[in-house]
Amino acid sequence: xxxxxxxxxxxxxxxxxxxxxxxxxxxxxxxxxxxxxxxxxxxxxxxxxxxxxxxxxxxxxxxxxxxxxxxxxxxxxxxxxxxxxxxxxxxxxxxxxxxxxxxx
Length: 104
Ligand code: HEC
Prior knowledge:
Layout: H1 4-20, H2 25-32, H3 34-37, H4 42-51, H5 66-75, H6 90-101
Helix pairs in contact: 2-6, 5-6
The structure holds heme C (HEC).
């Protein structure tokens, strides 16, 4: 019985640490977008057809305006379905947009 309290405290501490860990835009992009935007996936193939190979991989692009990315994510574009706030919060979208529009 005397071990219950320390163990509970320890698990609470671990839980808090994992909550506080910042999620990067790159990580969110990998989780939420790469399923269609990695090489060989649906989004990459559609962009390659419409815009050419050199603009097919989204996270290698340097020509994406932040407002355009936001618009496409919330409203969809052709075969890309709109992504709701239930799936990607506004805060998460900010991080993804920052990642995609950062100089690289
Ligand atoms: C279910 C698959 C799917 C997912 C998930 C997805 N996309 Fe797309 N996306 C597409 C497809 C397909 C296109 C190409 C539409 C076209 O050009 O016909 C596209 C196009 C785009 C474009 C337009 C690029 C341009 O130059 O016109 C942007 C920006 C974009 N996606 C951003 C994102 C972001 C950011 C995420 C993650 C939050 C995401 N997409 C997740 C399928 C997806």
